[in-house]
Amino acid sequence: MSKQFDPSPAADVLAARFGRRGKDAKKDVQAAVEKPATAKSSMTTRSWYISTATADELSAAAETIRHSVPAVSKHQALEALLRWAIEHKGDVAAALAADRKAQTGSSAPTS
Fold first, then answer.
1. Separation CA 15–CA 21 (nearest Å)
2. pTM of the model
């Protein structure tokens, strides 16, 4: 004995879509992936190659901020950390130059 279900409009849509599966696959994928032209996002995803230790420290710092400031998301905490670094890029460059000079005995860049 099997259960009988009332047909729903959603079932009709799914049946129609699966009935033509493979015929318009490219169009279906494009429709699912494309965003409307009017909805431009101010957010992006990027990927950088950094040491595991630095990535772990950055994540831990973001978590510390999240726990100390209510209602802050991880991406907001990460953005604030990166914004601070951007605002202090001169200090960062000076520290990197000093480290390089200490390691190599020279301030000249190497290729």
1. 10
2. 0.55
